[in-house]
Write a structure and sequence with these properties.
The structure holds 2 protein chains of 2 kinds. Chain A is α/β, with parallel strands linked by helices. Helix content of chain A is 52%, strand content 11%. Chain A has helices at residues 8-16, 19-42, 46-62, 64-77, 88-101, 113-117, 120-127, 135-142, 159-171, 181-198, 224-230, 248-262, 298-302, 317-320, 323-328, 339-350, 367-371, 378-391, 397-410, 413-431, 445-448, 461-472; strands at residues 81-85, 106-109, 129-132, 201-204, 208-210, 215-220, 234-240, 244-245, 270-275, 288-294, 437-438, 453-454. In chain A, strand 5 (208-210) and strand 6 form a beta hairpin. In chain A, helix 3 (46-62) packs across helix 12 (248-262) and helix 9 crosses helix 10. Chain A starts with 7 loop residues before the first helix and ends with a helix. Chain B has 2 domains: 3-36, no CATH class; 48-216, NagB/RpiA/CoA transferase-like (Rossmann fold). Chain B has 6 helices and 12 strands. Chain B has helices at 3-16, 24-36, 48-58, 72-82, 146-150, 168-177; strands spanning 62-66, 90-92, 109-111, 121-125, 128-130, 135-139, 154-160, 164-165, 184-188, 193-194, 202-203, 210-216. In chain B, the strands form 3 sheets. A 6-stranded parallel β-sheet of chain B has the order 1-12-7-4-2-3, with helices on both faces. The chains are: A alpha/beta, B alpha/beta. Strand 9 (270-275) of chain A pairs antiparallel with strand 9 of chain B, so a sheet runs across the interface. The complex binds iron/sulfur cluster (SF4). Iron/sulfur cluster is lined by residues 261, 312-318, 341, 372-374, 376, 378 of chain A. Chain B: Residues 118-216 form the LUD domain. Chain B: This is Lactate utilization protein C. Chain B: It comes from wastewater metagenome.
């Protein structure tokens, strides 16, 4: 997928003007938040569960070489083939090679974010007939759009949009009446069932990789991944190396976190554990089984201050709770991973240049960090990226100039105190009769265009503190 | 190890700041310490079977208790009737629990996976049920081929009451006790569903539209 991260502001403006999108986002958001809240409420000690989840991930990441070797040995022992891909191009090459060797014509795919990350669809579509089987992914494949949410890829589409797409692609007609959801789902089932039965290769992602047994774990509600990993003659898994967990005991804890955080379910309808290739007496299952393990920038994070980001289990809770995501939607972020997790991952995977706006599209309200099931300190990481930008001399010139000037003054108390006193008085005067907040501020139009600036009370904190001390004494 | 693999691993080790492969025993010790505390888990009052059936219902599955395996054919016939396909065929694997049952005359029974693409219903046998989440645990193989769990629109699962366990971890302990894991272990919690059309839940997205559980109370048989 081509990155459009550098035009974040323009993307956001367009998204905010799109009424259809705003309707779709508004109806989705409340549902996700309420369902998660209900599930967390019903759990005796969700905080302890988050602690444990974070600790499991940290332990695995700190010993990633060990667990990766173990996973590989176990998959190979059970007839599977493990491939290592250092970057996106290598991963595409491996997957295309497997498809070619298998003489594949038709390829199906169940939702995989790692697949999006390596732009797998574009590459596959050049040589094969490719169909996405997750309903949301299928919808956006028809619309020729990238996903806008990591667990609900078509969350930005309304029922009218979907009716139009299905009418056009399944019936070659336009302007049909709005169709009810059950009818649309049944139609997709019918169309896609054929695709499952005739496919040569299935490609899926993985939610967890279990080292002790060499097991790939897939969590879905539709059952598309299960048909995909059972019917075609070749199955390829593509997964980031951070998906590892030590054993099934640890996986149980992670599963308790995932369902509740993603959709508010204790357990998704289908949690599937795939261990190795088809056994000699198995009546079904693929003849060939491959697992492609992807680095693509992950080891960079493993070795720097952003290691905690690799705990991410791709639940989507951070974006569901983000006011910025809720207003502008996933496409605005311009690449595969939207919302707070994307604001950290995208600069990590794609570099700081061209992603300058991402860490700044954040109010630092902290909700993402407080709902994250593996306790990733997202706001801290976002703030940290701003520091990196500053050090790398990225960002807007006025901001840099203003911060430099402020820093220079703040380090000189004799200058700072009188200036602060004058400053607060001026601001107070601007607020004037309206009191409390300013609608416009010279030099800060970009900020006050969309919100009021809360104004100081007319005195500085230090002056107020001194006065209070005097009073108390 | 191939060159690619070697490079892959050395990049990881460099990021972790170590030169060679780590000491597995030290890692195992750290892991044991980490997992020593019991996992935070849901609690319930009442027995595990009731909890399981309640959770299954919450996940939009249906269930009934049957006294003996001789009751399976009649229960399946009712599911077929509800499905509007009274004659079946109903697809089953080689599980001994389903062998030699007396099916009513109008129901056709198909064995193995031939015909599973068009069969309206299937019956498979779970190796465990998890009370915590209302989850059925199924193992792949000739006894219960995986495609039977997903292709037909109506899926009946037989679960022995004695195979109901409390938590996910207990189910895993059982699976591991049976030796190497099969190619597929399916944890099934309710019928197939999607929320991709405006976040309203629709059943039967790709897998079964209906999941019906027969809880077999008889402990003596098989
Ligand atoms: S960062 Fe946390 S909340 Fe966001 S998707 Fe990852 S695990 Fe979920």
């Amino acid at each position: 997928m081509e990155a459009r991260t550098h035009t974040f502001k323009a993307n956001a403006r367009a998204a905010l003007a799109d009424d259809n999108l705003r309707t779709a986002l508004a109806s989705a958001k409340g549902g996700f938040v309420a369902k998660r809240a209900g599930a967390v409420e019903a759990f005796p000690d969700f905080e302890a569960l988050r602690e444990r989840g974070a600790a499991i991930k940290d332990h695995t990441l700190a010993n990633l070489d060990h667990y990766l070797a173990r996973f590989t040995a176990n998959v190979s022992e059970r007839g599977g083939q493990v491939h290592y891909a250092g970057d996106d191009a290598a991963a595409r090459e491996i997957i295309l090679g497997i498809c070619r060797d298998a003489g594949a014509r038709r390829v199906i795919k169940s939702k995989t974010m790692a697949g999006e990350e390596i732009s797998l669809n574009e590459a596959l579509e050049r040589e094969h007939e490719l169909v996405e089987t997750d309903l949301g992914e299928y919808i956006i494949q028809l619309a020729k759009e990238p996903p806008s949410h990591i667990i609900a890829p078509a969350v930005h589409k309304t029922r009218a949009d979907i009716t139009r797409l299905f009418d056009e692609h399944h019936h070659h007609r336009i302007d049909g009446p709005l169709r009810p959801a059950p009818e649309l789902v049944a139609e997709a089932r019918q169309v896609l069932r054929e695709r499952f039965l005739e496919a040569d290769v299935d490609i899926s992602g993985a939610n967890f990789l279990i080292a002790d047994t060499g097991t790939v774990t897939l969590v879905t509600n539709e059952g598309n991944a299960d048909l995909g990993t059972t019917l075609p003659r070749v199955h390829i898994v593509i997964a980031g190396i951070e998906k590892l967990v030590p054993g099934t005991e640890e996986a149980s804890t992670m599963l308790r976190l995932l369902g509740r955080s993603a959709t508010g379910q204790d357990m998704s309808a289908y949690t599937t554990f795939l261990t190795g290739a088809r056994r000699p007496d198995d009546p079904d299952g693929p003849d060939e089984y491959h697992v492609v393990l992807l680095d693509n920038g992950r080891t960079g994070m493993l070795g720097n201050e952003f290691r905690s980001m690799l705990r991410c289990i791709r639940c989507g809770a951070c974006m569901n709770h983000c006011p910025v995501y809720g207003a502008v939607g996933g496409h605005t972020y311009g690449w595969v991973y939207p919302g707070p997790m994307g604001q950290v991952l995208t600069p990590m995977f794609r570099g700081l240049d061209g992603t300058v706006d991402l860490p700044n599209a954040c109010t630092l309200n902290g909700r993402c960090g407080s709902v994250c099931p593996v306790k990733i300190p997202l706001p801290d990481l976002i703030r940290h990226l701003r520091d990196w930008q500053f050090d790398a001399h990225l960002g807007h010139r006025t901001t840099r100039w203003a911060l430099h000037a402020w820093g220079w003054v703040a380090r000189r108390p004799r200058l700072y105190h009188p200036l602060a006193r004058i400053g607060t008085r001026v601001l107070r005067w601007i607020g004037g009769r309206r009191g409390g907040a300013a609608r416009r501020m010279p030099l800060a139009g970009g900020w006050t265009d969309a919100r009021d600036l809360p104004l100081p009370s007319g005195t500085t904190f230090q002056a107020a503190w001194r006065a209070k001390r005097k009073e108390d004494a | 190890m191939s060159d690619t693999a070697q490079r892959f691993f050395s990049t990881i080790r460099r990021a972790l700041g170590r030169e060679a492969a780590p000491d597995p025993e030290a890692i195992e010790a750290e892991r044991r310490a980490l997992m020593a505390a019991p996992a935070p888990r849901p609690k319930w009052s009442g027995d595990d079977v009731t909890r399981l059936l309640t959770r299954l219902e919450a996940a939009a599955a249906t269930s009934e208790r049957i006294a003996s395996r001789a009751d399976i054919p009649a229960a399946v016939a009712r599911v077929l009737l509800d499905a509007g396909a009274p004659g079946g065929p109903v697809q089953i694997g080689a599980d001994p629990l389903l062998a030699g049952l007396e099916w009513t005359q109008e129901v056709t029974v198909a064995k193995g996976i031939d015909g599973v693409r068009t069969a309206p219903a299937s019956v498979t046998v779970a190796v465990a049920g998890i009370a915590e989440t209302g989850t059925l645990v199924l193992r792949s193989g000739p006894d219960n081929p995986t495609s039977l769990n997903f292709l037909p629109e109506h899926h009946v699962v037989v679960l022995r009451a004695g195979d109901v366990v409390d938590y996910m971890e207990t189910a895993w302990a059982r699976l591991h006790a049976d030796g190497d894991l099969p190619r597929t272990v399916n944890f099934i919690t309710g019928p197939s569903r999607t929320g991709d059309v405006e976040q309203t839940i629709e059943l039967g997205a790709h897998g079964p539209r209906r999941l019906h559980v027969l809880l077999l109370e008889d402990h003596d048989q098989l």
